[in-house]
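On clarity, I found the account of how folds are encoded harder to follow than it need be. For illustration, here is how one protein appears when written out as sequence plus C-alpha cells:

:::
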Amino acid sequence: MAERAHPDDPAFRRRWVLRRRGGWLPWLRRLPNPYLDAFLWRYRWVSSHALDKDVLDVPCGMGWGTSRIRGARSITGVDLHQNSILEAHQRYGRHAQFWVGDMRHLDFPRATFDLVACLEGIEHVPVAVGKAFLEESLRVLRPDGQLLLSSPYCRTAAHSGNPHHLHEYAPAEIESLLQPDWSIEERLSREVDNLTVLYLRCRPRSHA
C-alpha cells in the first residue's frame, strides 16, 4: 500500500477516463482507487465510534486522516515527525490539535481519552515499540475507553516486501500481542492488493 497518505499524492487521487457510449456520445468514468477507498473507509470506521468522545489518533502523519474523523468532542493527532505536524497544523489545525510525540511515550496524563486510534501504524515500528504503545494506550484511556487498531498482513508470504513495514503481524500474532490486557470486541478485514488489513476494536480487560 502507499505510505504516508497525503491528499497531494497521485497515489491517492481519483482518476477519470473519457469513454464513448454507443460509439459516439462521450462520458466520463471515475476509476476505482483502492488506496484512497481503503484510507477513507478506515476513518469512517473511527468516526462511527467517535461520537462525543475525546479521540487520539497516532501516528497521524500530516493530519489528513485525522481531519476525516467526525462527531468527536475533541481530536488530537500525534506523530514523530515535526514536519508532518507542522503541515497538519497549517492544513487542519481548526479541526484537531497536533503534537510531536512518540508512540512509546504518549505525553498525556492518565485517563485523557475515550478512544485511541492507531491505523496502519503498528507495522511501521519495531515490535518492542508496538508493545510499549499498547501499554501507553491503556494508561491514557479512560474507563470504558476503546482502542481501534488496524494492521496489514500479506496473504501470500510472511512479508509483503514493503520496506516501510518493519513487522507485519499475522492475525493470530497481533491478537496474541493484545493478550492478556485487551478484550477484542470486533474483528473486520478488508483486502488491498496482496494485503489483508485487519481491523480490531478493543477494550481494556480491566475496564470490560
